[in-house]
Structure formats: structure tokens, C-alpha cells
């Protein structure tokens, strides 16, 4: 498999999602991810979801109710994303990412009050306490962050499909918009990706080190 250089988080900054001005924030990476053990592959920004879209079947985020989304796929219009899809770079190799780099916007202009949005792999037992973005009425707030994805068969997630993640709004409802900017894959000591589409991290194949 090909080697891929590691890119630092400052390289993930993307264009603004909305025409309305947005207040930038910073949020920590998902605590369960060890970024040093992952390979990052950037993509052109692609609209994963927009809960305001008339094609988004789940509608806007409702306070206290988690909503599941796909981090990649051929047609994401059912979640307000690109109708032509957002596919990850290793799809042709039947490999699956374990996290995404994304720009998340809480559309405060349509929020029912102040609150925050958290994200976590679908099937996780508990929601994290660290928020992706805090919002308040009247202001659109954007943040570049990392979202962990479901890994079926892993120790933490067993009831989901590869690439699923949940968004949860706390305290108030709000529309959400996410553009994906890149995908993370596990790697071994040779910087090779070692995750299978079936889920879970697999060991690298035997390799002869010397003759």
C-alpha cells in the first residue's frame, strides 16, 4: 500500500460554510482518538449534511435527541449533503476511515436558544462532555474539528455501520451544517493503513525485514 504523510491540524482549515458571518471556535479532538497512530488524507471540502435542506429527512437537531449521519457515501441528499456524494480516498481499496476532519457550523440564526453540539460514533454508550461548537441565537458559529466514526466490531461500537456518527444538541435545537475536509485511517509502523471495511483494526500482513 502507498505511504501517506501526516498533515498537522492547522492544515485542515477550510472555507466558511455559510454566507452569514460565523464566529470561529476551537474544540479538542475526540478523546478516544490517538492522532499519532493515524494517517490523514485530505479531500476537497464536500458537504456531508445540512439539516436545513428540504431533502434532509431528519430535519434540524432537536435538543436531547441524537441524530445519525453518514461520513461518506455516493448520495448524501437524504441528510442534506451532496447529491453526488462525498467518497473517501480509500473507498476503491475497500478500506474504511475511523475519523473525519470537518468544518461544523451551528446555524444560530435559526436556533431555539443557547446550547452546544457534541458528536460521537454511532453506537457509543455515552455522549462526550466536550462540545464541537457552542451556539447562541442570532449568530452562526463554525469550528474545524475531528469527529470519530463507528467501527463495527470494535470494543466501543457494535451497533452501527462503518462511517456512522451521531450529532446531539444540548439545551436547545439548532440547524447543523458539516463539510468534510479529510479522512483518518489507522496505520502500522510502516505507515500503512490497516483498517478493513468490515470494521475493526486488523494486524498488518507478515513482512520480511531481511533476507
* N-to-C series of helices and strands: EEEEEEEEE
**Distance, first to last CA:** 21 Å
Shape: globular
Structural class designation:
mainly beta
The count of domains is 1
Radius of gyration: 17 Å
Sheet with most strands: strand arrangement: 1-7-4-9-2
Low-confidence stretches: 1-31, 195-211
Instruction: State the helix count.
Output: 0
Helicity, as a percent range: under 10%
Question: How large is the share of residues in beta strands?
Answer: 25-35%
What are the key terms here?
211 residues, mainly beta, 5-stranded mixed beta sheet, 4-stranded antiparallel beta sheet, 32% strand, globular, disordered N terminus, disordered C terminus
Describe the secondary-structure layout.
Layout lengths: L21 E4 L12 E13 L16 E4 L28 E9 L7 E7 L11 E3 L4 E9 L15 E7 L5 E11 L25
Parallel strand pairs: 1-7
Antiparallel strand pairs: 2-9, 3-8, 4-7, 4-9, 5-6, 5-8
What does this structure look like?
It is a single chain. The protein is mainly beta and 211 residues long. It has one domain (9-186). It has no helices and nine strands. It has strands spanning 22-25, 38-50, 67-70, 99-107, 115-121, 133-135, 140-148, 164-170, 176-186. The strands form two sheets. The chain has a five-stranded mixed beta sheet with strand order 1-7-4-9-2, with no helix packed on it. A four-stranded antiparallel beta sheet has the order 3-8-5-6, with no helix packed on it. It is globular. It starts with 21 loop residues before the first strand and ends in a 25-residue tail after the last strand. Residues 1-31 and 195-211 have low confidence and may be disordered.
Amino acid at each position: 500500500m502507498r505511504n501517506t504523510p501526516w498533515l498537522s491540524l492547522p492544515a485542515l482549515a477550510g472555507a466558511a460554510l455559510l454566507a452569514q458571518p460565523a464566529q470561529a471556535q476551537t474544540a479538542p479532538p475526540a478523546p478516544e482518538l490517538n492522532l499519532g497512530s493515524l494517517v490523514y488524507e485530505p479531500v476537497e471540502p464536500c458537504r456531508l449534511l445540512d439539516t436545513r435542506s428540504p431533502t434532509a429527512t431528519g430535519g434540524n437537531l432537536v435538543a436531547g435527541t441524537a441524530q445519525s449521519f453518514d461520513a461518506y457515501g455516493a448520495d448524501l441528499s437524504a441528510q442534506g449533503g451532496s447529491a453526488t456524494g462525498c467518497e473517501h480516498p480509500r473507498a476503491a481499496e475497500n478500506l474504511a476511515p475511523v475519523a473525519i476532519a470537518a468544518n461544523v457550523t451551528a446555524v444560530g440564526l435559526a436556533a431555539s436558544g443557547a446550547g452546544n453540539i457534541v458528536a460521537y460514533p454511532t453506537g457509543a454508550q455515552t455522549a462526550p462532555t466536550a462540545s464541537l461548537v457552542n451556539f447562541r441565537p442570532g449568530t452562526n458559529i463554525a469550528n474545524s474539528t475531528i469527529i470519530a466514526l463507528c467501527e463495527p466490531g470494535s470494543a466501543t461500537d457494535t451497533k452501527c455501520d462503518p462511517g456512522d456518527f451521531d450529532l446531539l444538541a444540548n439545551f436547545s435545537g439548532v440547524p447543523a451544517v458539516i463539510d468534510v475536509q479529510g479522512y483518518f485511517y489507522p496505520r502500522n509502523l510502516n505507515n500503512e493503513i490497516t483498517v478493513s471495511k468490515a470494521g475493526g483494526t486488523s494486524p498488518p500482513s507478515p513482512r520480511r525485514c531481511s533476507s
